[in-house]
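Duplicate of #3305? Posting structure anyway:
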């Protein structure tokens, strides 16, 4: 077995395969170091979210996956600060409240009910789900890497795959041959020959405060380390860390022509400033707080926003990805599913609707660049429009095909 990419997808796959068949020789090739990609730098929502709606069986598998991550990390001693406090999503404008009611009916919380979990400025209502844990992303991925290496998996860091072909992976240091090759390269996939239009890398950026004193947390809430967001179009996400920082992220960074990824794109002062302003708007108590960290990274979006996992039996080529911003738990489901596919087991997991799904390719450039950046711009405009008018955005409705879902 050879797996390309040592993020959660690659490492969960290696983990479950090595457990199922200790005699199997598993090699993982990683261009940089394990956890270098989105897995080492995400917002730490281990949620039951799936980027598109695929029905009850997929949803149930996602909910069970959150608990599976907890079970394995506890069993393997991976101290990833797992806290299953659920997610609270605020409605902070009339338009957001209308959307929350349309999606959640009478399960929308009143401002007073919302305030029991999170006290943010301008809250008109909220929705809550218990199916999410806050985790420390890098601790999870580095912990997993240690566990799989301890189980005999061969992890080669600083070893980029130059090409993936049936039965082999080419690297500058030699060719690795194996009957099965798993591609687990997510936002970096377009760099591989033949895969330029498989997913697009979209950057998500994050800022973190210094550890906040108890008095500040008394004002904000999140006593169960609930993850939080609101019902705006341009996604934002936050969590309270185990060491009492507030970590807060969002989209809005531009897409780069030709699906380029570069460390230079991980940091964007304009996006960091926007995140900072949004956070102060949510929690005015943070005025004067020191922000100690800021970072970002690429996630992978397929043309139909539908994550997938699969194995082509004719070639032995397997893949998993296209999680959009919901990969922390979904990668675990992918790892268990790839185990079953590769070991030719027919299970509940291999019957899930995302298995074998093939997303269409993205448009060639410059159409891709024009469409994606117009979509990102439209989401920002739609949020501004809604806070002015209080009504669901006309821009958002007109641009719906570009906004994905
Ligand atoms: C800032 C940010 C915040 C996010 N927040 C959340 C969140 O809160 N919750 C959530 O569920 N999801 C979140 N996501 C998405 C989530 O992190 C990803 O979906 C998930 O980590 C994907 O894991 P992966 O292993 O498939 O990909 P990655 O972690 O990106 O790993 C891919 C690996 O492949 C390596 N690689 C690439 N090309 C090659 C090659 N040619 N040869 C060898 N190695 C190669 C890369 O170096 C990398 O280490 C976020 C993403 C970002 C960027």
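Output from current build:
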């Amino acid at each position: 077995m050879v797996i390309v990419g040592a993020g959660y997808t690659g490492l969960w796959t290696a983990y479950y395969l090595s457990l199922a068949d200790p005699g199997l020789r598993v090699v993982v090739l990683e261009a940089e170091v394990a956890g270098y990609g989105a897995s080492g730098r995400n917002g730490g929502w281990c949620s039951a979210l799936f980027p598109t709606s695929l029905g009850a069986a997929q949803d149930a598998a996602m909910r069970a996956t959150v608990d599976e991550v907890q079970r394995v990390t506890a069993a393997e001693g991976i101290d990833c600060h797992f806290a299953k406090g659920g997610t609270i999503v605020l409605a902070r404008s009339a338009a957001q409240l209308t959307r929350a009611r349309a999606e959640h009916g009478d399960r929308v919380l009143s401002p007073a009910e919302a305030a029991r979990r999170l006290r943010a400025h301008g809250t008109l209502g909220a929705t809550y789900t218990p199916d999410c844990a806050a985790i420390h992303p890098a601790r999870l991925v580095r912990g997993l890497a240690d566990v799989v290496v301890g189980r005999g998996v061969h992890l080669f860091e600083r070893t980029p795959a130059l090409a993936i072909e049936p039965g082999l992976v080419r690297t500058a240091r030699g060719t690795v041959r194996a009957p099965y090759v798993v591609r687990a390269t997510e936002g970096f996939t377009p760099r591989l020959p033949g895969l330029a239009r498989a997913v697009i890398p979209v950057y998500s950026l994050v800022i973190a405060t210094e550890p906040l004193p108890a008095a500040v947390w008394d004002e904000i809430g999140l006593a169960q380390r609930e993850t939080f967001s609101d019902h705006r179009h341009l996604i934002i996400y936050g969590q309270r860390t185990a060491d009492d920082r507030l970590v807060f992220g969002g989209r809005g960074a531009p897409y780069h022509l030709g699906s380029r990824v570069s460390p230079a794109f991980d940091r964007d002062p304009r996006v960091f400033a926007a995140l900072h302003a949004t956070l102060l708007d949510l929690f005015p108590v943070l005025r004067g707080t020191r922000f100690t960290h800021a970072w970002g990274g690429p996630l992978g979006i397929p043309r139909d926003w539908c994550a997938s996992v699969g194995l082509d039996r004719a070639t032995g080529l397997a893949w998993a990805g296209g999680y959009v911003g919901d990969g922390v738990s979904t990668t675990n489901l992918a790892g268990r599913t790839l185990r079953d596919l590769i070991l030719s087991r027919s299970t509940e997991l291999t019957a899930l609707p995302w298995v074998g799904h093939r997303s269409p390719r993205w448009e060639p450039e410059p159409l891709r660049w024009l469409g994606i950046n117009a979509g990102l711009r439209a989401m920002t405009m739609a949020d501004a429009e809604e806070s002015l008018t209080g009504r669901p955005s006309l821009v958002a409705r007109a641009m719906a095909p570009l906004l994905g879902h």
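Confirmed duplicate; merging threads. The first strand starts at residue 2 and ends at 4. DSSP finds eleven helices and 18 strands in the chain.
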